[in-house]
Design a protein that fits this description.
The chain is α+β, with helices and mostly antiparallel strands. It has 5 helices and 3 strands. It has a single domain, classed as Winged helix-like DNA-binding domain superfamily/Winged helix DNA-binding domain (Arc Repressor Mutant, subunit A, Orthogonal Bundle), CATH 1.10.10.10. The longest helix has 14 residues.
Length: about 120
């Protein structure tokens, strides 16, 4: 006995309405990813905390190696990433570099990330 099963198919596809909410463009997505990458490392989060808590809201690079128990080249690498992400600014004074938070940078990063 040969029994054929037939399946009904519909050609009408149902789709939802496109969202009216703004979406990230490619440049904003790149910026957000760079900030998230900078913030994703525990040592970099600690550096931000140490700098923020420093006298006058700044810290000398010479004061940042001991609390993290990391070598100066490693700390400098982490600081460079935070500067490139726009979270810290660097000021050279003689032979030392001083780091401070970019005013409003953490708030702007938070708003951007939460706005995703």
């Amino acid at each position: 006995m040969n029994t054929a099963l037939t399946m009904e198919t519909t050609t009408e596809q149902v789709c939802c309405e496109p969202s009216e909410r703004p979406v990230l463009n490619a440049a904003d997505a790149q910026d957000s990813a760079r900030i998230l990458k900078a913030l994703s490392d525990p040592n970099r989060l600690r550096l931000l905390s140490i700098v923020k808590a420093g006298e006058g809201g700044e810290s000398c690079v010479c004061d940042l190696t001991e609390p993290l128990d990391l070598g100066q080249p490693t700390v400098s690498h982490h600081l460079k990433i935070l500067v490139e992400a726009g979270l810290l600014e660097r000021e050279k004074r003689g032979t030392w570099a001083y780091y401070s938070l970019v005013p409003g940078a953490l708030e702007a990063a938070s708003a951007r990330i939460l706005g995703l």
